[in-house]
Design brief:
signal; two-stranded antiparallel sheet; FAD-SLDH_ssu; 167 residues
Length: 167
C-alpha cells in the first residue's frame, strides 16, 4: 500500500512538473499573436494627447494597442480616422468628447477616447465579455498614487502585518 502511494505521489509530482513546464511555454505561444500588429504611432499620439503626458511606456502602449486591435479588428482604422480628424480640426483633449459628439461624420469614433483612457488608467482594454486586462500595477491610476498609497497586495490584515512573526 505504501509503495502504491509513493508511485502515485511521484507520478503526480512528475505530472505537475510537466504541467508547470508546459505553462512556461504559453506566453511565448500567445504573445506572438499580439505582437504582429500594425504600427501604433497613431495610438501613441492620441494616447499622449488624452493623458496629457509627453511620454508613455512603449511596452504598455504596444500591449494596449494589440489588445484593442484584437477586440476590434477595425480599431487601427478607426484610430487613424480619429487622429486625422483631431489634427485637421485642432481639437484639444478637453473638448474632444463634445466636438466628436457634435460632428455627424465621426460619431462612430465618439467612444474611442474613453476606451483608450480606460486602457491607460485602469489597464483594461474593452469591456464586458471581450475585456482584456493588460496591466494592473503599471496602469496610470496606480502609478499616479504610488508615492502615497501602499502597493497593491493580496495579503490579509493591515499593511505590513505579514512581516511580524506569528505567536
Amino acid at each position: 500500500m505504501i509503495d502504491m502511494f509513493n508511485k502515485i505521489s511521484r507520478r503526480r509530482i512528475l505530472q505537475g512538473m510537466g504541467a508547470l513546464a508546459a505553462t512556461s511555454l504559453l506566453p511565448s505561444a500567445i504573445l506572438p499573436a499580439f505582437a504582429d500588429t500594425p504600427d501604433n504611432s497613431d495610438f501613441s499620439d492620441i494616447s499622449m494627447l488624452l493623458t496629457g503626458r509627453n511620454t508613455l511606456p512603449a511596452e504598455y502602449s504596444r500591449a494596449l494597442f494589440a489588445a484593442f486591435s484584437h477586440i476590434d479588428s477595425q480599431f487601427p482604422q478607426r484610430l487613424s480616422r480619429l487622429k486625422q480628424w483631431v489634427t485637421q480640426n485642432s481639437v484639444p483633449a478637453a473638448a474632444l468628447k463634445t466636438r466628436l459628439a457634435a460632428d455627424s461624420r465621426v460619431t462612430d469614433l465618439a467612444d474611442l477616447p474613453a476606451l483608450i483612457l480606460t486602457g491607460w488608467y485602469l489597464g483594461i482594454a474593452g469591456s464586458g465579455d471581450k475585456a482584456i486586462c493588460v496591466a494592473y500595477v503599471d496602469d496610470l491610476a496606480n502609478q499616479q498614487v504610488a508615492a502615497v498609497l501602499n502597493p497593491p497586495t493580496y495579503a490579509y490584515g493591515a499593511y505590513g502585518s505579514w512581516a511580524a512573526r506569528p505567536f
